[in-house]
């Protein structure tokens, strides 16, 4: 029962504004989840998968215009444009709110309004935050049930006068009399808005029913709004995995890692180490909230309760733990359907089945030129499905190392360590991936920078974000703070990738953990500390000495070009607001190269 007067008042306002047919309060029970899921199947919104192959699992297929996050329709709405900064689309609240209120007017006509109290982070933990999402999408309700802690236990905290974040969502497809409800309702692209109001810790989303546009606890709250909240309250909200590592001496350490898309973040979060006696356990694959505690160490939690992962490329060869995770109790979106009511996507098996129903609902066979799944097709699965989930996944853990990385065929070595915390901030600011002319018009070798893997997710000015990292560093010492590393699994020569990756990445993690203990296992270079190959675990590794030397090579001539690229990037992005820490670190890098 809702007792919080602020929440009751808000619900009445939204009911009056959006005119739903009925209202459902999300209790968080399995019974309620199953009833809504069955209703979605009955109404033709979802397909129930084969219970013998994929128990308690559903397949949804979206409208072709609603298949991913829509960055050009995502807004940070602050009174002053400078508070949003150069990386965000900005509209002031006094212009955006009237426009969206007009769209929300009667938008839930003929639909059920779901009221979903949810906790980002374990219920009752001081590092967690509470929210309430009001939505007219059962798909959103079911996904939020998996991705967050929902229901009566959260409502009890909100009823105790706890602060909560208001999240309003509508698919933007009111059901007037005589209008048939499509399987995936949504609004045209020009009417889609994913809007954040950091000054009020509020999120309004209209017109899209997909993923991060609609599951407002995910990127919207856990990164954009949370990063703004964190900047004012001395913590960090980051796009990072959290991994628990136990070495062959039974010593436990924790690392986080930030990587742009297609750089193996989920694979690393569920790694099976090849090193004898080593164990890796998953705490999270996407988001880390971190703060420096009284002991001077930085602690992290995963605020999510589930995985919202990319399906294509996931297989028993690439990520067996992910495959076990999605074997039951999973919602799939935009993958293909097999004849025996299981799912298929590119990379799942070497060969596609002879016949499939593609994500658009059409018959598909191998003669078709198109692929049967969408490239951004997804799975939503509970953390508790993961066979490598750490038993302490709901507790804050002390972080020993922070990893940054990107897909760089040249220039960046396999791994290097920053000289100190502020140099690590510099490494985070320049991370990114090299792309081809097929992706960008700028030609082969273009670097698509993604600072801290946060470019689309920083909820305030990026200059202030960088300076906030500096302030977090000042809360402790380099000795106690996590050591910062840059990894690159993707260095290549003319024969292909030099490093085998996957489970062999545990060798790099071993070197990293040794460095967090101050082991003398490195060589100093102008860009940072790289492995001394005489002290790097190469036992039974099928990589030649020549290739290993190439993997850790730091080429002065290539780095002079890299420095020019960084300078241009900084100039274009920050203009006259380049944070001092980045200016100083770039100057130091140039001096070390005598550039």
What would you note in describing this structure?
- The strands form eight sheets. Strands 1, 4, 5, 6, 7, 8, 9, 10 and 11 form a nine-stranded mixed β-sheet that branches. Strands 12, 13, 14, 15, 16, 17, 25, 26 and 29 form a nine-stranded mixed β-sheet that branches. The protein has a five-stranded mixed β-sheet with strand order 2-3-19-24-18, covered by helices on one side.
- Helix 11 runs antiparallel to helix 12 and helix 11 packs across helix 16.
- It contains 16 helices and 33 strands.
- It has 595 residues and is an alpha+beta fold.
- It has three domains: 211 residues, Phosphoenolpyruvate Carboxykinase, domain 1 (3-Layer(aba) Sandwich); 265 residues, Phosphoenolpyruvate Carboxykinase, domain 3 (Alpha-Beta Complex), CATH 3.90.228; 80 residues, Phosphoenolpyruvate Carboxykinase, domain 2, CATH 2.170.8.
Major beta sheet, specifics?
A: 9 strands, mixed
CATH architecture of the largest domain: Alpha-Beta Complex
The separation of the N and C termini measures: 67 Å
Which residue ranges are poorly predicted, with pLDDT under 50 across at least 5 consecutive positions? Answer: 436-444
In terms of DSSP E residues, the strand content is 15-25%
Whole-number radius of gyration?
Answer: 24 Å
**What's the total count of β strands?**
33
What structural category do the secondary elements indicate? Answer: alpha+beta
* Helix-residue proportion: 25-40%
Q: Which outline best applies?
A: globular
The CATH first-level class of the largest domain comes to: Alpha Beta
How many domains would you count in the coordinates?
A: 3
The pLDDT mean sits at: 96
CATH topology of the largest domain: Phosphoenolpyruvate Carboxykinase, domain 3
Count every helix, treating DSSP H or I runs of 4 or more residues as helices.
Answer: 16
